[in-house]
Write a structure and sequence with these properties.
3 strands; 3 helices; D-Maltodextrin-Binding Protein, domain 2; about 100 residues; elongated; three-stranded parallel β-sheet
Length: about 100
């Protein structure tokens, strides 16, 4: 009898959570171009992979993907640029 009560409580909690999740309003993303930072020089393997994926990602997101090569210091310069960027999801790092 106790197991059925626990099952009912779990089911009630799950339904409540799902109902409340439906009330949350999501913001539109992306609303501006997304910057993909490649921390290596142009023409390298990472740059080529980024340039192959950028158009497909842009189609999926419905927004332009801008490739930004920031080579130097063993990828530290590009990685630091992404780390210092605003945490809004519009700056991506590909490594």
């Amino acid at each position: 009898m106790r197991a059925s009560f626990a099952s009912r409580v779990r089911a009630t909690l799950c339904i409540t959570c799902l109902t409340l999740c439906g009330l949350a309003y999501a913001q539109q993303y992306p609303t501006k171009p997304v910057r993909m930072v490649v921390p290596f020089a142009p023409g390298g393997n990472t740059d080529i992979i980024g340039r192959v994926f950028a158009p497909k990602m842009g189609e999926a997101l419905g927004q332009q993907i801008i490739i930004d090569n920031r080579g130097g210091a063993g990828s530290t310069i590009g990685t630091e640029a992404v780390a210092r960027a605003a945490p809004d999801g519009y700056t991506l790092l590909i490594v």
